[in-house]
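Take a record:
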Amino acid sequence: MGRIVGMPRSIWSGSVSFGLVNVPVKLVTATSPKDVRFHQLHAADGGRVYQKRVCSVDGEEVGYADMAKGYEVRRGEYVVVTPEELESLAPEASRAIEIEEFVDLAALDPLYFEHSYYLLPDGPAPRPYVLLVEAMEGTGKAGIGRFVLRTKQYLAALWPRHGVLALSTLLFADEVVAAESLEVPTAADTRPTERELDMARQLVGSLASDWAPEKYRDDYRDKVLELIEAKAEGNEVALAPPADRPAPVLDLMAALEASLARATGRAGGGEPDAEGGSERAQQASA
């Protein structure tokens, strides 16, 4: 039920500039989400259900020509902004990504990343492109700049990935919730003991592995597609019983010991050691 996806089409073309060096590039998508999308149907007859734009005052359907943009300043009170007013404030269309500074790639906080793309060389002379990629690879740096895509200005990070320039749009600082603003327990009695910390570090170490994204799949999506295919072929579908919820952890050390035993048992290819923490683990999940 999948579809063949070819070379992604260019959605923007321009250049990357650093100093006086200009690198012609084109922007293509770097991701291909595989969400299962459903249409809304009338349960009685299977007809498609369409949404209408209806005015809350007179109940009449509103056409596109009669639509206006309004910003709610107080509940139920709007400031109307015209397309001409917005256009006068729009960033100047530009076909250039000017790198304003280079920062350590390792210093970029993943929380700021928004959407990801590839920048490919555009034109018959890719030498400046290769120059930029290799210079960034050799220094471990990422370029930070701005560009305009579909009338909106974006902050972006550029970095080399397997010989290709990757670009991710970034959230601005005021769009990221500061961790310091969150309520997290800090009382002394919530601090783990040194023994608990040591066990937790061992557990992390036993589960450590090289990052291999291809070994992970969206199991839920696979099951939904199997369900759709089975129903499309007219097969009866048996509903799976709901999964049991995990019991709350009552004994943290027992849970850590049992987890470590299970992880080391998997790593060794055998069964977890039943001695030590197994009896306490059963008590913890009781």
Q: What stands out?
A: The chain has a mean pLDDT of 85. The first helix runs from residue 83 to 89. Residues 189-207+245-286 form one domain.
